[in-house]
Predict the structure.
Amino acid sequence: MNYLIKGQVIEQEVHENSTATSPYIWRAYDKTRISFSSSSRIPFLCSMNKNRFCTPAFRLLVLILILFQGGSVLAQNKGDVLMPYLSYAGHRPGADLEARFGNNFSLGVGLDWLTAKSNWIFGLNANFLFGNTVKSDVLAGLRTDAGFIIGNSRLPADITLRQRGWLLHAEIGRHFPLNADNPRSGIRITISPGLLQHNIRIQDDPQQAVPQLLGDYKKGYDRLSNGFSLTEFIGYQLLSENRRMNFFLGLEFTQAFTQNRRDFDFVSRTKDETRRTDLLYGIRLGWIIPFYVGSAGGDIYY
């Protein structure tokens, strides 16, 4: 079985005339494929006859360090790439969404496939939306003249409103190299159809309950809305040759066509069937963990 490990091959052979205390001869080759046979193979380091510190544990530790660090010199970033990533973004809302919420943020995960020949990108991503500014006071009808909401202990309750939501998208796009020395650095452009959902989160007072907000009563105030969305991204993507710096950074734009999904809205005292246009503009940063798949079957670069 063949393993490609950071462009370096390491081989160990058993010497026919070796003693019990020095059973190995160590050799290393500068190639791109490693073959592990029944006799374990590791790099040339030392001979136990010459160095009393070369214990099996020491050799194992140095082997791990070499395999981990070898990529800084001989690593490759060629071939098809499987790219799981984490991302973070800040957004400014627009259109109908701006009337309901302030600026928000999103934390996302994704999985992309980057082709070697044509640099096409195919993937999936999911993002959790959150924000602290809610412009619509959906609980105004529950407040006293002084602006308080009274709990079941007959004291003002500490009720806060927050924005929550999520985005689910399929993704297609392309990478355009800018550097001939590293064709995996360049412009990343993607378009992502999917689903956007947002709602008003009503956070209860931990010390007392408000009867009007117990159980399903909250659904009459949260204005849960969702619908088809389309997200475009344009920015810079880098997959470094030593594999230590892999990220993307750019501008993101989302257009969503949503509608309230609750059967009844307590504020308007009707079913809200208004069709909405929700916009988001922002900057997204993603950190990529690439896995390179070689042209030969079964070859994977870690």
